[in-house]
Design brief:
single chain; 350 residues; alpha/beta; six-stranded parallel beta sheet; 12 helices
Amino acid sequence: MHIAHVTSFYSVSALSPSSAVRARGIAYRAAGHEFSVIVPGSVSSVTWTEFGTVISVPAHSAALRRGFVPIPFAIRRALERLAPDRLEVADRLSFRQLGNWARDNQVPALLFADGMAAGWASDPALTNFERIICGPQNTAHSPEQVSVETLMTIRAGVDLEIFTPLRHNAALRDTSGADLILVCAAPLTASGSVSLAIESVRTLTAENHDVHLVVIGDGPLRHRLERSAQGIPVQFLSAADLSLAERSEVFATADFALVTASGIVGHEVALEALASGTPAVMIGSDHHHIDFCAGGGINSQADPEHIAAAVTAFQSEPVEVRRRAARDTALPFDAMPLARAMVELHESLS
């Protein structure tokens, strides 16, 4: 069968597609199915990858200035060209229209509810989906208008084969020349809160720490954030320009990951960093819960001085101990068993 997945168009994603989507695509293809991922982009494009076909639908820059309304129609046009047998929707912007499209075209559809707006559980559009999939943090908001059999709990995962400490690159690290390398992957938007990471580096630099911050992300605030980071060691990399392997290399080479994004985006960033053997500093309170092994991660207040203190405290742990703890924290989140469960789910739908 041909399975199509629509990623989030509502906000700029830090990691699109995520390693969990990649793992599902690999599992689908291994089972003999075709997989297509529809993602937001600046122009229309089609890219063939090892996990499936990636189709970009214009949704940034000029497209956003015209408003959100045209985007669901553009996604529907892409789906009509693909004519999939199954549909996965992870976009709070277009899930109502795509649910209607799936019903009208008799295509079984699955909704990934993590990241949905407040009040999602009472939305009548949920009845157009065969299954509603959410993480454990959303189980308390069970939709009243759908049967218990429709609701499934599957937590987010990470591809442990591609995100691994083995991708640590000493040569890449040497290009920085800094004693302490931090990485922050987040959408360059107000909600991405990358400014917290930048101000934390300013604090660490003022305390005479030899530090270098790598920011991975795209978004409308890039130029403003670059201006705010002038005079301190901050480097910006476009997430769109990095393959998953290259992203893993950056994570595995850093000493710590500063997780500023909230919700499912921050959760995915933390898991990819942890799987790469890099401890995570989870900033703020709006995060999915992760049970850190000792030395593998820490929660911090959304305050630059508090973040800097957390990083400094982390440095006292031996490098190998904290890297092993980070990896061990990520092991229960292996995406491949979850991906195989999704294969069985799709094959069970009529």
